[in-house]
Amino acid sequence: MKKIISLLVAAFAVVSLTACGSSTTATNTYDQVKKSGVLRVGTEGTYAPYTYHDSKTNKLVGFDVAVIREVGKRLGVKVKFDESNWDSLFAGLNAKRFDTIANDVGVTPDRQKKYDFSRVYTTSQSVIVTRKENQSIHSLKDLKGVKVAQGLSSNYGAMTKKAGAIITGEDDMSKALKLVSQKRVDATVNDQGAVLQYFKQTKDNQLKVAAVVPSNAADIAFPVLKGSGLAKPFSKELAAMKKDGTLKRISEQYFGKDISK
């Protein structure tokens, strides 16, 4: 009898420990963010006008920076940025070094298999940049066999690889554009807003927008780990920001027009 009772007590203890373990596992990232009061955000800090440092104050600014800061404010938490190059941002998210990425992240089928996304808050359209004298590139198909500078894990890297381009790995857009200007590569593909901002800031008269890629307009949203619980509250606050005009105001500040969704 004592043996049976002992076995029952042991079994109960195992069940209790299992239940406790399940409770700990069930704590999602959103709960942890609310408890700590800090939302950790990965970003490049070198991708104007989305995420960059103000030349006068060195403060991290940009469209995506302002949007996620407002989301954090409405959630009642502090936003802490972790700057890294593009090709390591998703690795950082996977390793839980930060909770989301604010860096003009396109929603793609492959990424949707791995991550949850907030509601879309803007769209991004791609352009091909070449030197001014280059008259041979007018569309993606013209990149076949051509040297291009691209981030290897970016949408643009995948796009140009599919087009048959010879890729030189460079995830920093400003460095990629300099490679084109210096004739070390023939072209690069990137976001239209970011490219125009670069032209405005650097006044590099060696470059031009050779073509727009109209079929590659990408929806932009904040990626989070699946099951993190962050996508829904992010989406709720972004919808409110769209409704009350906050997204429009931030958009006009950085682009001169409303590109929000």
Automatic annotation (TrEMBL):
Give the keywords, sorted.
Signal
Give the range the annotation lists for the signal sequence: 1-21
Keyword Signal set for record: yes
- Domain Solute-binding protein family 3/N-terminal spans what residues? 38-258
- Gene3D superfamilies listed in its UniProt record: Periplasmic binding protein-like II
Superkingdom as given in the UniProt entry = Bacteria
Q: Does the keyword Signal apply?
A: yes
What name has this protein been given in UniProt?
Cystine transport system substrate-binding protein
